[in-house]
């Protein structure tokens, strides 16, 4: 069904309004989910509010607070709050510190549920002429290469670079499918594509239920390289920021890491942006393989989808998903 953008954003925000959150805070969290939905990332938007552990079921212990801080860094105890709210706070802090010092790093721990599409936060940094790097950790759902147990989170990585035009943004999970991709498939009664997940015995499965209960998602390339990337994120969002790690039972908090770099510390901001745009043009005008009409740079497809949806003023949401949301 088609839903007007303002109506969907209002509906998402109402899910967060409670004794814990103000209307303004609810709108902040809805903004993150809307970014994903508008960008065509349908496992990172509305899907966060349905399933066995919907984001709005949050029961925070206390307000997010900075527990350690220097001029270049901060560590935030999320207090069990919904991750998008804490991540918005972290993004604001890392941008401010980067503007003041040229480089900044902020970690979060003890947050509830998914951070949402982390490209949203990298985009905010890039819009401030900063290089943004974001890493998100979560309870285990992905097996290491050669293993069966779901020790790693889906462990997404996002980067954002300012250019002379729109920022270059890329956001990808280090798993073959996101956890909410499983939730979506289960909700819609769909099978998974072949080769993305295993059951509790380590056999390939297309049943999302078997993957979610005792099974695991595979690393995105099903090899040691993609597993190595996932391992890196597990460390950056676990031991480094005081978050839990390797939790196959799904317990423990979710955690994140945000890094902002001012290009002016090296070549200068305008020079960097010009060179990034030059690189984009070189790539897009390079020779294409047969069957390709165009070479897309990271994030370009999502950007086009988002702009198209914004121009139409509405977005397509599966009827069954909307039914569960309502």
Structural account:
By secondary structure, the chain is of the alpha+beta class. It has one domain (2-265): Ribosomal Protein S8, Chain: A, domain 1 (2-Layer Sandwich). Helices cover 37% and strands 17% of the residues. A hairpin with a 3-residue loop joins strand 2 and strand 3.
Summarize the SSE layout with pairings.
Elements: E1 2-4, H1 5-16, H2 23-38, E2 65-69, E3 73-77, H3 83-101, E4 103-111, H4 119-127, E5 131-137, E6 157-161, E7 168-172, H5 179-188, E8 197-198, E9 204-205, H6 208-212, E10 216-217, H7 224-236, E11 254-261, H8 269-284, H9 300-312, E12 314-316, H10 319-325
Parallel strand pairs: 3-4
Antiparallel strand pairs: 1-12, 2-3, 4-11, 5-6, 5-11, 6-7, 8-9, 8-10
Helix pairs in contact: 1-2, 3-4
Question: Helices and strands: which structural class?
Answer: alpha+beta
> How many DSSP helices?
10
Radius of gyration: 19 Å
Mean of the pLDDT scores?
94
Number of domains: 1
CATH class, anyone? Alpha Beta
Estimate the global geometry from the Cα principal axes.
Answer: globular
Q: What is the third-level CATH name, the topology?
A: Ribosomal Protein S8, Chain: A, domain 1
Please give the order of strands in the largest beta sheet. 2-3-4-11-5-6-7
The SSE string, one letter per element, is: EHHEEHEHEEEHEEHEHEHHEH
Strand content: 15-25%
Tell how many strands the DSSP assignment holds: 12
Report the span from N to C terminus: 13 Å
At CATH level 2, the architecture is: 2-Layer Sandwich
Helix content: 25-40%
**Low-pLDDT segments, ≥5 res:** none
The biggest beta sheet, please?
7 strands, mixed
Which superfamily, in CATH terms, is the homologous superfamily? Malate/L-lactate/L-sulpholactate dehydrogenase, NADPH binding domain
